[in-house]
Design a protein that fits this description.
The complex is a heterodimer. Chain A is built from 5 helices and 9 strands, in the order αβαααββββββββα. By secondary structure, chain A is of the alpha+beta class. Chain A has a single domain, classed as Calycin beta-barrel core domain (Lipocalin). A 9-stranded mixed β-barrel of chain A has the order 1-2-3-4-5-6-7-8-9. Chain A is globular. Chain A starts with a helix and ends in a 15-residue tail after the last helix. In chain B, the strands form 2 sheets. In chain B, strands 2, 4, 5, 6, 7, 8, 9, 10, 11 and 12 form a 10-stranded antiparallel sheet that branches. A two-stranded parallel sheet of chain B has the order 1-3. The radius of gyration of chain B is 22 Å and the shape is globular. In chain B, a hairpin with an 8-residue loop joins strand 11 and strand 12. Chain B starts with a helix and ends with a helix. The chains are: A alpha+beta, B alpha+beta. The interface between A and B is large, with 47 and 47 residues.
Amino acid sequence: MKLVTAAALLLTLPVAAGPLTQIPKAADGHPDLSGVWQAVNTAHWNLEPHTSAYPAVIELGAQFAVPPGLGVVDGGTIPYLPAARAERDKHFVNRIADDPEGKCYLGGVPRSTYMPYPFQILQNTRDVIMVYQYATGFRRVYVDGKDEAPLNAWMGWSNGHWEGSTFVVEVTGLNGQTWLDRAGNYFSDNAKVTERYTLTSPNHMRYEATIEDPTVFSKPWTIRMPLYRIVDDDYRLLEFKCEPYAEEKIYGHLRKPVPPASGGSK
Amino acid sequence: MSTRTQLMAGVVVAGIAALIAAPHADAQTKTKSVPKTAWGDPDITGAYAEFTTAPLERPAELASQEFFSSRDQWQVYAQKRIQEVDQDVETAPGTQEDVHYSMGTFKLSENEGTTSLNMRTSIVTQPKNGRIPALTPAAAVRRDAAAAARKGHEFDGPENRSLTERCIVWPSTLAPILPRGYNSNLQIFQSPGYVIIQGEMGDARMIPTDGRARPKDNLPQWNGTSIGHWEGDTFVVETAGFNPETAWRNSTEKLRVTERIKRIDDTSLEYSFTVVDPDTWAEPWSGVYPLTKMDGLLFEYACTEGNYGLANILAGERKRERDAAARKTAAPAK
């Protein structure tokens, strides 16, 4: 038994010793989710199935066009209530101005998971910490935490527990100001998101998120996708501080007007 | 006046005073074994307040006095410091100084939290006079040039405002961490191979402790790149590779910061740091102050998302310009 524990501990060390060959375990025996992960799909463009499309700003050309995707929603379509679907469609029309991603706002849950940026999980028995490269998003998941969200927040309030080899995170206290993708899919501040993280191999994780929000959807719905471990040698999460890139969009109209060039007609 | 009574009631976590106050605290803290995490690292996990009654630099009149000589002397300076931080001072209506938060109004006041008694007369311990070394002549030229370039353009656009107003870099995250006026709190998490330091108003620094080497690429980062290791029970972090635009206290991308975090007891840590940048200061300088454990936890700060301040600052200046232009039109020059 002692030997098994020692072996498990060794497996929690970073991958410098070579590629993992079996599912890593933490010292407490649970699967060890620690590492840098990323989704490799087009869910960040649109959770629903979609063909390729023109870029939102036509001048940006083909390299900023929307790539096609099979979608990640169980059953294909998000079960919106009619008024909510119209709201989603309005979001899409106004996406250049209104998508919180364009303003460098925190991605919320579950969007942060499948944005086209890596995120890192750090696991101990008391907390599981998730740090997202995008906008330096941060989540503390209270393992076996029973507290309720003291108030709403962009990244919500996360309580986690283990169900066998699956780490289940119940997220409440979401502020309803986040979107779910660049197509304008969304939920309100009544939403509850239940995430499930399951290692299926040393370098793959199954990610599922069930979204309940009776004010927006006719029934709960679920997205599913694999997450991939970044296995590059000496990989580290670099900063993506996007605030400067959003300043023209947010504050451009408040700049000091450039005076007209002098030396014209007198 | 209410501030004063709160200060004396709320400021001290008793019992650890001697440790921070004692000139040779290092030698005295080895009495009890330090609690360990499940994987054997010293356990420094928790939420901590950074505020301390010691100012960053020693008041000139205290000269070479490293510690207050009495509780009475401490009280006089601690009171002054808290008033400064709370901006709890009389200001003349209509002046720029008069536009400030009254910290107590929003329950932001430092003295409503817990703060370890700190008998030091300054955070800075090296040089011996407790004051930051003067900038090198070249650094002074850099500072003056930056100030001159900014003069008259302070409100032109977002890029002209400070990194903190723009939600890019916070003193409560950036190494070396220094206490600020409010929300001067941080959280430390640990997992095998990592220590995470998360400032309340800032980012989580994920600091590897698995023995990896400093990355050779040295890509510039706003917060630099931190690598940590344990020296006995002390957590040591070396940070370098700062973005030149971070320019902490006029420093350059050659800035290197060493932080040391040591558990003192169940309610406090000792945080010390040394900064080196030969292009900015002729000599390295160091400081120390206590981190005091708080009840509760830190909540999401979401700086950018609620940054009405930056928009209002710029909008206010644009209004002032429009008003000035309108006055000029109404009363043409004689």
